[in-house]
Amino acid sequence: MLRSRLSEALKDSLRARTERVTGTVRLMLAALKDRDIAARPKGIAAIPDDEILQLFNSMIKQRRESIVLYQQGNRPELAKQEQDEIEIIQSFMPEQMDDAEVAAAVKAAIEKAGAATVKDTGKVMAILKEQYAGRMDFSRVSGVVKQSLG
Q1: Same domain for 31 and 49?
Q2: Do the Cβ atoms of 114 and 35 come closer than 8 Å?
Q3: Tally of structural domains, the chain
Q4: Rounded to an integer, what distance in angstroms lies between the CA atom of residue 103 and that of residue 23?
Q5: What is the dihedral of CA 13, 88, 30, 137, to 10 degrees?
Q6: Number of C-beta neighbours around residue 80 at 10 A
Q7: Same structural domain for residues 67 and 103?
Q8: Which domain does 42 fall in, by range?
Q9: pLDDT beyond 90 at 103
Q10: The pTM is what?
């Protein structure tokens, strides 16, 4: 489903001549194709939607890191470009969970994993990634998990 949405978005952006959307969607499709090619030796023809969402999350994370560097380097125009790309990528993802939903999901995952200490963070994160791929920012959630276990 995500693949068809990406293809349609590319066609629409080409018709509308929106360069930023066209470029970003092409980057997303290229990254997706790279992942598909990497998965072929494992016998997987095309990666599933949950892995696509994880790919999109990593693309967003990379852009957030770039924004910080661009701001430090006094390059606001490049930071704005990265922010625009983040918004385009997020438009293909399911709605993100708010803080209360994240806290409830973390609590449930801790109970399911039987986690008691910070050493169990990996187990909890694995459960969360399995159940909520694309719906939460796992770099932020890991802090919530550690705080809950610590």
Answers
A1: yes
A2: no
A3: 2
A4: 36
A5: -160
A6: 12
A7: no
A8: 2-90
A9: no
A10: 0.75
What would the two tokens of residue 142 be? 């890991």
For the four alpha carbons of 11, 14, 16 and 22, in that order, the dihedral sign comes to positive
* Residue keyed to tokens 């095309």: 46
- Encode pLDDT of 13-57 as tens digits: 999 999 999 999 999 999 999 999 999 998 888 898 888 888 998
Q: How far apart are CA 9 and CA 26, in angstroms?
A: 10
- Residue 48 shares a structural domain with residue 75: yes
DSSP 42-108: GT-SS--HHHHHHHHHHHHHHHHHHHHHHHHTT-HHHHHHHHHHHHHHHTTSPPPP-HHHHHHHHHH
Burial class of 130 by CB neighbour count within 10 A (0 to 12, 13 to 18, 19+): exposed
Asked whether 10 and 26 are in contact (CB, 8 A), the reply is yes
Q: Is the dihedral of CA 59, 61, 63, 69 positive or negative?
A: negative
Query: Are 86 and 55 found together in one domain?
Result: yes
Residues in the chain, overall count: 150
CA torsion sign, 143 to 144 to 145 to 149? positive
